[in-house]
User: Fold these one by one.
Assistant:
Number 1:
Amino acid sequence: MKKYYITTPIYYVNDKPHLGHAYTTIAADILARWHRMRGAEVYFLTGTDENGQKNVEAASAAGLGVEEYVEKMSARWQETWDSLGLTNNDFIRTTEARHKKTVEKFFKAVQKKGDIYQGEYAGWYCQGCEAFVTESEAEDGKCPIHQKPLKKIKEKNYFFKLTAYQDKLLAHIKKNPDFIRPKARRNEVVSYIKNFMQDISITREGVEWGIPVPGDSSQVLYVWFDALINYISAIGFADKKTKFKKYWPADLHLVGKDIIKFHCALWPAMLMSAGLPLPKQIFAHGYFTIDGKKMSKSLGNVVDPVELSNIYGPDTVRYFLLREISFGQDGDFSAAKLQKRYEQDLANDLGNLLQRVLAMVEKYLDAKAPKPTRENIENWPIIIEAMDNLDFTRALDEIWEVIREANRFIDQEQPWKLVKVDSKRLAAVLYILLETLRNIGWMLLPIMPTTSEEVWRQLGLEPTKEKQKKFSQAIKWGGLKQGVKIKKGKSLFPPIDVL
Ligand code: MSP
């Protein structure tokens, strides 16, 4: 059976989950569900990044011990994903023993290769980014992203010979045009590797909370060096050979555009040094902004995904995030845009279609599905191609094309007239509409899973049974059997007045 290993970045625990984080994780969930439904054995990983000095400070501000603090905050992230119905198979925490063990093993492999040396480092550091910021990037001595004063750091560290991998990295990127997507990000990474990449300090002195350097407990490993390794600790690099062999290399690391240098240069170089294969693809999506500014705790403009989901339901949030912004580009969030999408696309187009069709089947056909037809409404090939290509916006455009086409078909055929003159055509028209709705259920399953199931339930189908079908069989026209009794239920998207 084909496998599909997909990851999200692991999130810093000193922040609480906001809509920007949910965007990455929901996109990964959609892909995980998509590949599961296509029959792959999926491993969907997310988790929390828990080491580093900033957690010590955050814990003390919260009046808690660090261990207690990271435990509490990490649980909050998992609870958020649970309440949004996300289907991650695993949740990795970088304070877990399985991770520490992996990091130690990995460090030793890189050391053995001769890629670690001691040196002195001096520079301006941003704790929010957990990275050094150059003089030219800094704005009035502050981090351009977090707008907080930078710290001058000068210390003896261990370095990783990142520059030793410059040629190999460039060659790999050239040979594998889809390794970094979208193209604009690939160009950005290539320019960084060619012009700016330097060896990187991978340890810190005087940090109390982190993984000690094997053989030198006076230093801990730099959070990014430790965090990237999570992608292999979760699947058993340290001691689960079969599992590791089965899932590595990852099929996709999904990340935000802010962290591409780490994922597209440092991580692949680390893997090359340790003698491991590289992930197949890294896809960087854009920022979610509020009035043009990146959503972040330090800017105080966060939108809580759980609050939104409590109002509109998780499916609406999923739909909105993926429909409104072309995947890979930046996009701006506004409550008015969400409300408009809810009313027009969801309530008007989809909700009404189901209601109209079921009302007519109830009224004209004694609530039973008629005989299958050959005539159909669909465009599966485009949707499959778009989903496989991570082009969610295009997939949704096409699905809505089917929905609108079905609505137009009702207006053209006018079943309320057919009932008086042509009962055969009436039955055919209503079958086409019912079977289109069953297919729409499949099209929406990875993106709006609750809605799909409700559509099927109202069509008189058993969602668990429907989902057991093999995808290629399930989407074949004619799957809805004659005589199935529909169960018209409540409206899919009832009016919500929040503005
Ligand atoms: N801990 C590191 C990642 C280590 S992965 C080995 C980190 N964490 S983070 O919590 O700050 O951010 C993680 C990811 O959240 C970002 O890369 C991005 O995917 C997502 N986003 C955070 N804010 C976002 C927006 N405003 N918009 C879109 N995505 C955002 O970096």
Note: The chain has a mean pLDDT of 94.
Number 2:
Amino acid sequence: MLLTGKQPAEQLYSKIDERVRSMTEAPGLFALYDPEDKPAGWYLRSIQRAGEAHGIPVYARPLSEGTALPGLKAYPRTTPCTAEACVRLLDYYKVPVSGKHVVILGRSLTVGRPLAMLLLDRNATVTICHSKTEDLPSICHQADILVCATGREGLVGKDCVRPGQTLINVGGDAVEEEVTPIVENLCPFKGGVGALTTAVLLQHVTETN
Ligand code: NAP
């Protein structure tokens, strides 16, 4: 099965629309961005488009202005959006997690680590891999659910997967033409978790206003 992000995102957007309609003051998102980081700039524009479509204006300022802005630290902390999007995707497509072995490639504070915590809360057995992990293919083979979040294109090929697995290609690491005929479920890089991540972000905005 192809686990695309569009459908669970649409489900979430309808809740966001309802919430925005019920609010007395319009919510807004304030984003600090690095002008040198082009992919982050594209992502910001897609967030702005989604925000506009759902009544949430997104105000963007370069990171250099961030230190001059009082009160940012007082904002409530929420779960990192991509980690939450991965869990929501599994929920939406009813992929069982409890008791399953999830292997996460990547240990960043925004994706790998928070995702491991969310999955542990759902009784998964979690292995986190990183750039110093030895024999990655054999660890990947042991996974029921394999989350690829390193951003290293080509890292996960047919030698890393087996039938029956669910693979979430968060960072574009998996060679999709090689893994698609083998795994049971694939959440592709394009049209996958990214679409849902934006919806999760806007939902957090409506929750914290
Ligand atoms: P990051 O902070 O650069 O972390 C990358 C992680 O991958 C690190 O933990 C690194 O290990 C590990 N790694 C690098 N090379 C590896 C290798 N050869 N084998 C095993 N692990 C390796 O990146 P991030 O912010 O977590 O994002 C990861 C990827 O997901 C990026 O491509 C990003 O663009 C993408 N992303 C996609 C979405 C989406 O919505 N689709 C959202 C967020 C991020 P070390 O810790 O040892 O360096």
Note: The radius of gyration is 18 Å.
